[in-house]
Amino acid sequence: MFNASEYFENCNSKLKLCVDNKYKFSRVTGIEYLEDVLDDLKQPAYLAVDDTDDGVTVREGAGYFVKRVITVFILRRYKITDQADRETKLAETRLIRNKLTAKLIKDSNTNADLMFLDKTRFPYKEVPGYFASGTCGIYFFVTVKEPTNLCHNNNDWYE
Questions:
Q1: What is the rounded CA–CA span in Å between residue 46 and residue 56?
Q2: Could you report the per-residue pLDDT of 39-70, keeping only the tens digit for each?
């Protein structure tokens, strides 16, 4: 099973743009609850992964799969009165998203945990408006569809 938090924490420690610009890795619970980010607004930048486990079980062919959508946030602080600085920092977060997407695609060819990565689409959104007093960024979605065993076993049940 793909461990997104572990994967992106590793990416954060190796991607030059993240290391050079001091991105802090965090785990969060969706855009409504960016706890680690909002609790520590002193950091210049954040790479955060939503660690909630939301998904859907789907049938494909003769089997069943658990389809999980993982949200990755790339957030950068900027001078709140300087729109040029905001655009520069936003461009950086877009570039990091592209680099992470390229790495996911590359790693899906050699990393067994990414064998079921959906490589057909990687939707993304820009963080809206004035978020967290001078923080801009982008978040994107990674979909993994992994096989699951839904075979009924009578031994699991009391008669």
A1: 28
A2: 566 788 999 998 787 889 999 988 999 999 99
Residues 55-68 as b or e (16 or more Cβ within 10 Å = b): beeeeeeeeebbbb
Q: What six digits make up the tokens of 101?
A: 């997407």
**Which CATH number is associated with domain 4-151?**
3.30.2000
**Model's pTM, two decimal places?**
0.88
Give one DSSP letter per residue of 29-61, joined into a string.
Answer: SSTT--HHHHT-TTSSEEEEEE----EEEEEET
Closest CA to 101 of 74, 140, 55: 140
Domain range summary for the chain, segments of one domain joined by +: 4-151
3-state helix, strand, coil in the chain (%, to 5): 30, 35, 35
